[in-house]
Design brief:
With about 290 residues, the protein is an alpha+beta fold. It has helices at about 20-25, 45-60, 65-80, 100-115, 130-135, 165-180, 190-195, 225-230, 265-275, 285-290; strands at about 115-125, 145-150, 155-165, 185, 210-220, 235-245, 250-260, 280. Helix 5 runs antiparallel to helix 8 (about 225-230).
Length: about 290
């Protein structure tokens, strides 16, 4: 019996197997050589169901509801757990209890469910160049999300998503890699972090000479590192929000503080022009002034 039942897959939101399905898995073969079906019960989470919805869409261009994709999610997990190959696996796909608003949530969680992304909370020094050094520490891995707001303390907390090519193995390798230099926690299985914390990084910083920009990054590996290296040591990053949404370009919200703002008021704009990424200044934005400035 499950201790709690989530309602994401509401058509199957039960704490234990129903009477009839339980009877079915007890049935024996006609020659009494064993049960008709294996009695293994596979538990899947929300992210794995989202990944199965995406798999169904990629294969058949059909969108199924979460309960309809749950069996496929279970099959994928069972295959991975038992190392199966060259087997015919069957799942029943049913239901169309899906609305457009829910698709946004599913798309957000799919990469985690496919073990193609991991998310971490990392403490980095609150000093110039720390962001650049952090990116270099990742040894060329692609950052899928980065949330940061300047702090008046000596350390800053960042929320970072990193693309995975090696699944769970690489996820743990990255954790160990970061542990060598930073205080880090893996949040990939933390439901609160995935639902809420990632959207709440920030607050008022009251920083002198801070300016806010929306910058368009080309969606390719190394684009962020190029931006940081070209930005140079004169300009301090005070805010950074980026999330990969699968488009050809990524829209990044970045706060910048020029240490030479009084002596060279045009220096920051000149630097951004040299970087050559399209940008627009939005320092007068109402949301920024009310919640972040």
């Amino acid at each position: 019996i499950l201790p709690t039942v989530g309602l994401f897959a509401d058509g199957t939101a039960v704490a234990q197997i129903g009477e009839k399905p339980f009877e079915v898995i007890q049935l024996q073969k006609s020659d009494n050589s064993g049960p008709i079906v294996e009695r293994d019960v596979v538990l899947v989470n929300t992210d794995e169901i989202c990944a199965a919805i995406k798999d169904t869409y990629d294969e058949n261009r059909s969108i199924v509801e979460p309960s309809g994709a749950m069996a496929l999610a279970g099959i994928k997990k069972y295959i991975a757990q038992h190392g199966l190959e060259n087997k015919n696996m069957v799942s029943i796909v049913c239901g169309a209890n899906m609305n457009f608003d829910r698709l946004r949530y599913i798309a957000e969680r799919t990469e985690l469910g496919e073990r193609k992304e991991a998310i971490y909370a990392v403490t980095i020094p609150e000093q110039k160049g720390a962001f650049l050094q952090f990116c270099r520490t990742l040894q060329g891995r692609n950052i899928t999300e980065f949330n940061y707001r300047a702090s008046h303390n000596n350390h800053a907390q960042v929320f970072v998503g990193i693309s995975l090519k090696g699944g769970e193995t690489e996820r743990h390798e990255i954790h160990e890699l970061l542990k060598n230099q930073y205080d880090v926690d893996d949040l990939s299985d933390d439901e609160v972090a995935k639902l809420h914390i990632r959207y709440l990084i920030g607050g008022h910083a009251n920083l002198e000479n801070e300016r806010l920009f929306q910058v368009v990054f080309p969606e390719r590996p190394g684009a962020l590192l190029t931006f940081l290296e070209r930005l140079g040591p004169t300009h301090n990053i005070t805010l950074f929000h980026y999330r990969n949404h699968g488009a050809a370009e990524g829209r990044v919200l970045v706060g910048l503080q020029a240490t030479d703002a009084k002596q060279n008021p045009d220096g920051l704009i000149e630097t951004l022009q040299k970087i050559s990424y399209p940008y627009v200044e939005i320092s007068q934005n109402t949301g920024y002034e009310r919640f972040l400035k």
